[in-house]
Fold these 2 entries.
Entry 1:
Amino acid sequence: MNWNFIPLALGEAISPTTAAYALATIGLVVHFGFTGLVNFGQAGFMAVGGYAFAITTLKLDWPFPFAVLATIVASVLFAFVLGIPTLRLRADYLSIVTIAAAEIIRLSVKTAEIYDVTGGSTGLNGAADTFQALNPIPPGNYGIGVLRFTAPDLWTMIVGWALVLLACLLVWALMRSPWGRIVKGIREDEDAVRALGKNVFSYKMQALVLGGVLGGLAGALFILPRSLQPDNYGTQLTFFLYTIMLLGGATTIFGPLLGSAIFWVVLSLSDGLLTLGVDAHVLPISSTQQGPIRFIIVGFALMLLVIFRPQGILGKRIEVFFRA
Amino acid sequence: MSELIAGEPAPGVAKRDPILVADHVTRRFGGLTAVDVEHVEIPAHAITALIGPNGAGKTTFFNLLTGFDKPNTGHWTFRGEQLAGVPAFRVARRGMVRTFQLTKALALLSVIDNMLLGASNRAGENFFAALVPAAWRARDAQLTEKADELLRKFRLDTKRDDYAGSLSGGQRKLLEMARALMSDPALVMLDEPMAGVNPALTQSLLRHILELKEQGMTVLFVEHDMHVVREIADWVVVMAEGSVVAEGSPETVMSDPAVIDAYLGAHHGTDLGTVRGRLEVAEGMESELVRSEVEGEAAGDGR
């Protein structure tokens, strides 16, 4: 029996993909956890960021820093498009519009007429080249035991996690300030905050933009170790991010990091265990059924979590108690 | 109370020193005219009660004046400035702060954070300046001091660091009022401040409202309890079916046949206040007792 999958699964905790999911979830925590904006289209922000980064890099030959800037600008614009018509309305409208907008993005980029720009349903490949050209790490294999990373992997990981920590720092600094007090007040009751002289619409927009930019950057980070595939940005991605958020704690700064790490480790571990079971003919399933079953396990774990620890791993129980 | 008015007492009478003047304010919901106020003036530095039967349009009128709802027609001035069409948050910034009938305590914010939200901290509320604590720390400390003082006054100082969600209904009313005072408003608009408040707190709430007037603020409040109105109001405006049907001092209004007709109706002569009994209870208590009662109530809530 091959037990190598255990260290490999644990290695998932620090992979660039885990970092990308953590970053996108930090954005979602700003929206949902702190401001009370029910954004069901975080995958859309990731798609917008990913496409902005890939198109400016591959089609326009922009250098890396400018492509990052384009990612940010595109996310800001997308936030405005979603926010201007909906943020004055009741909270439900934002969730409907965001889920629809994310799907519109995913389906539109597949249009054959714009194949030259978006790569249609095959997506875009090689967006990470300008980023890897900046890699200062000498080529080689780094790591311990079976857990080994190439120089590009390591570079992506370092930059990715640095970005995640920066985002944590930013959100922490904002949430302890009077600005954070206002957005948390809006989460509790926006009319009360309005009655106290705060421009609620403006603060909701600022929060939507902030979380959206984090989502967009996560989208760019997500395609550094892989090619850009439009179908990666389905509603499933948004719901994974919600899973991660609820797992770590929706109103916590480090919850997304922990949640993302646990999510990927559990997913990978259950895959390894199922493979063992299938190969040894212990489990009455085929290897094609294995993939979906992993998600059944994750879904089940999430159900247990919201029943027995609704505040998430790092959240405070009392917050759930007083939620009206 | 004739020193407040500049004319014969009648609906829409001019005031000597009006802080709020409203003209032709109407609000229709489909076929229903909820508010149709021809002219009304609210006297400055006085306590005005807005009374009327259920569905008279008092809260809708409140919402219109404070920018929470948009009228079909009408305009109004506050301290001489046009206020029609001004969004709610700007209305508050201009010194006209309101509370709500259903108390809006921000449950998952601490009591002190609730208070700090009431005032403005220009630098700290700006996205970029918020990242530099040096830009807002001093102002925050200054506001915290003010907030603590208000909390002591409203006997909420022991709850300072608790979630507002842990307060009892009456304490939330107190918190909402204290929070509104953080911005030093010129006009405080209280929508049913006594609703659901226990007898011990009623007395202290009344005292707080009277104190606001002593500090030079103007108070406009909606209330159903006639004893409360009689006790603290300098002027009473009566609304029925959307319009102002009577105005006057509490004594004259309550003996006005139009009011009795429109409002008191068949219940004329019966005790419309629930507070009289409660006040007698509260009066007999020493402040220490009142305090323990309040705390007992909070503890009894199980939170």
Entry 2:
Amino acid sequence: MLKASKKPSKEKAQVRDKALKEALTPSSKLISFERGMKLDCGAHLPELNVAYETYGTLNADKSNAVLICHALTGDQYAASNNPVTGKLGWWLNMIGPGKPVDTEKYFVICVNVLGSCLGTTGPLSINPDTGRAYGVDLPVITIHDMVKAQNMLIDHLGIETLFAVIGGSMGGMQVLQWAASFPEKVFAAIPIATGAHHSPQNIAFNEVGRQAVMADPDWQGGRYMQEGVIPSKGLSVARMAAHITYLSEEGLQRKFGRNLQDKDAIGFSFDADFQIESYLHYQGMTFVDRFDANSYLYVTRAMDYFDLAADYKGVLGNAFMGTKTRFCLISFSSDWLFPTEESRTIIHALNAAGASVSFAEIETDKGHDSFLLDLPEMFDMVEGFLSSAARARGLE
Amino acid sequence: MNAAKSGFATGRADLEIIVDLIKPGDRVLDIGCGDGTLLRMLEERLDVDARGIEISPEGVTKCLAAGLSVIQGNANHDLASYPDKSFDWVILSQAIQVVHNPKETVRELVRIGKKAIVSFPNFGHWHIRWQVAIEGRMPMTNRLPLPWYATPNIHFCTIRDFRALIDEMGLKTEAHFALRSDGRAIARRHPWLWNLFGREAIFVLSE
């Protein structure tokens, strides 16, 4: 079942065509801000496109909006089919009618992040100055820039206060940034499996990924689109390395062990003997069709640059001083990318700031990726926390 | 509140006494809050700003569902980040016997809270003395139901022991109560009876 897929190249080409089409003319909702946006790096983005999807209905006083922030390679299709891959929404077990983020009660918004590749401005977008795709001419993006772009959309929708902002991993970084930058606009915040900065180990893994992309001759200095190629080998290796960090040693042991792939004995070759190899090959291969290599560089860089305390004179508590936002943090025991200690650092800062904060570490061997999986403990926490927040906000 | 005071309402007489101490709107931190029983009583009756720390994920989930702000953690590691006097009350109810360093914890309680409430099972109670002195066994009671090899309790004390600790630390005792096995408070005019007949004790402390 884990055999590396041998899709015909025609099918792969079709997925790539769809991905390119979605980057320029997304199936989701799209808003263009012609005034553009000033970026943290100092550059001005001349035109800003924000692609987003919504679920549920905004109530009359616009008080039931929930913003979902996606992770590194996520997208706005949190609870609907991804138009490129045709796969189900990545957080369909969290969002929907009767789900913890109940679309019968809340108006859910999910925005493709700045620098990504599914409709919001990113390296595949057309640079109005040249008429060609930005590629690596796009200025470097930060998590704060992503949040600012989301805020422009929220303002455009006429929403004064978000009932909740929720996200895991890089999505959690955006949640923290939202709470720090726009405290009066965030009633409740749920940062999951995240940290207030990217650790040196995480930066290291991202750098391995970026170097793999840039070492691929097909990367062409970032101008592969003009050459009609994509650095699929490099991007695939980047994804394989990153994917290991989303799992855990115990999880790999349980799921794969040293099991061989479709064979009874090792092959004395460099083919994929082990199931784990085959699994990673598959992860890498499917990824390159749906995700832009330059976007991967930009979005990983945004994560690396994230350091919330540094923006507040080195004291994380200052980022949340006087906040009225109620927080609920969740971490996972086997997550070594964003270990529980990172959540504790945030909690201690929130305590120091006198914030209302809840937290639990969920026991699981599924590693960092747990936030995307079917974990009843997580759903119970989110549902309980949101319901009580909804009562406090007068939503029920 | 008389029926409640005798402990019939919750089965936890110490909780009723604690609730009676607290004023509406106070800021309260309950360390080892379990499923949030005390915090919920406080929120419902007094509309306090209630926060909790609880070690079990199940307890935290129950608290969250009840709308309480609770972090998974414990008194050994998670008190240092709270600013001085950030709460009106910090409560350590029936938990001092499980913390690693009770003296350090009590110091943190009175630092974080304007007042601290500590309740604990009294190891000087006659029934416990009987089990140790006459039966020659480690004590087991309704409140301390686990045998010596399974109990999480590592720092037992008597009421006199606790008083000695408070004196040594130079803390003020704002109020104190000793409860009999039936949950009723022992009269204040017989303090010498407390250490023998008090099944549990409640101390209100300040710096």
